[in-house]
Structure formats: structure tokens, C-alpha cells
Amino acid sequence: SIVVHKIVHHLTDRIVGWGYADIKLRDIYRYNLENRISAAIAFVIIMITGILFHKFMYAIIFLIGFTTLNGATGGYHAPTLLKCLLLSDATFAITLFVSISLSSIENIVVTLSIQIVGIAFAIIVVFIKAPYNHPNLDLDTTEIQYLKKKSRKIIISISLISVLMILSKFPIGITSMIILTMDAIGISLLIAKIKRGGQHNYEKETGK
């Protein structure tokens, strides 16, 4: 974590020194660069985990679903790179475990009920809470409106795909992985909002 932090600072200083970036935006560049490095490391670890547990497809679903939706919704950001990596890997591990557990439930009514609740939860949270305006991003009104519409379109699209997969009797584990990935993002949004508490001075919310 310390090594990556130093590398990011060194690269950012070089980029600013060469005149490719505004010195006033140095902190934002550092933040974005650290996020990209963190995402790349987490990607590798999750892929390796999926291969080791013979759940490569689950890893692919999680990564595609998470990056696609989370890019529009935003969510909780751990304070350090190490915590971010641990949180990402733990999220995948828990999502994978629950998906496999759901596929082992013999009562299909119970499984379907859980999946439907999962879809509803994700849609409600994204429609109400997304996007999360992180202080380091400081989105303006136009950006918030754009991401609000984009996140809603994505969550509805993924939800419809999930429903079609359920009706087509796709493997429960695969379908559950898609739904639980949406739920993981929903939980991330809620945690981010709760941790921000009453600091509404950073928010630039507009109408729904």
C-alpha cells in the first residue's frame, strides 16, 4: 500500500511537471490513479480466486457487473489501498459463497423469493441513492443528472436480464451471482451515504 502510494505520487508529480496536468488538480489525479491501480490489482486477485475455486464464470460476472454498474452509481471507498483491496476481495468471496449456497437450496420457491427480493432491493437503492457524489469527485449538477439516468438504465437492464434468466431456468448460482453483485453495489451505496452522515455541503443533489 505504501509502495503504491509512493509510485502514484511520483507519477503524478512527473505528469504535472511535464505540463500534462494542472497542478491544482494534482490530488484528483492521484485519487483517480490510485483507484485504477487498486481496481487492476483487485481484478487479478478475483480472477485467481475464481480459477482456484473452479468458479471462473462467477468471477467474470462479478467483475463485469460491478465495474459496469459501480462506474455509474459510485459507492463506498475505503480510506487506504490495502483496505480497498481487502474489501473488494471480501465482497467477491461473500457474493460467491451466497450464490453457491442458494444453488444448493432444494426448495425452488425459497430461492426465487430471495432472488426477487434481491432484484427489488438493488433497484430501490439505486433509484433512491445513486449516484454517490464523493468529495474527491465533487460532481456538478449536470454530471449528477447524467449518472442518475445512466445508473437507472443499467440497473433496470441487468434486472430484466436476471428475470429472463430465471424464467429460462438458467443455473441458479449464475443468476444469483448477477443479482447479488447488484446488491453488493446497493449496500456499498448505503454505507457511503451513512458514513457521509449529515455532511450535505458536499452534495449537489437535483430532482429525480
TL;DR of this structure?
76% of the residues lie in helices and 0% in strands. The chain has helices spanning 2-17, 26-52, 56-73, 81-103, 108-129, 141-167, 172-196.
Please state roughly what percent of the residues sit in beta strands, choosing from under 5%, 5-15%, 15-25%, 25-35%, 35-45% or over 45%: under 5%
Radius of gyration, Cα only, in angstroms? 19 Å
Percent helix: over 70%
Number of helices: 7
Structural class: mainly alpha
The largest sheet, given as strand count, sense and whether it forms a barrel, is:
none
Shape: globular
Distance between the termini: 39 Å
Rounded mean pLDDT score: 84
Element string (H = helix, E = strand): HHHHHHH
Q: How many strands? A: 0
Unreliable stretches (pLDDT < 50, length at least 5) are: 198-204
Name the features:
globular; mainly alpha
Molecular structure report:
The protein is an all-alpha fold and 208 residues long. Helices cover 76% and strands 0% of the residues. The chain contains seven helices and no strands. The chain has helices at 2-17, 26-52, 56-73, 81-103, 108-129, 141-167, 172-196. Helix 5 (108-129) runs parallel beside helix 7 (172-196). It is globular and about 60 Å long. The termini are far apart. The model is unreliable at 198-204 (pLDDT under 50).
Task: Please give the structural blueprint.
Layout: H1 2-17, H2 26-52, H3 56-73, H4 81-103, H5 108-129, H6 141-167, H7 172-196
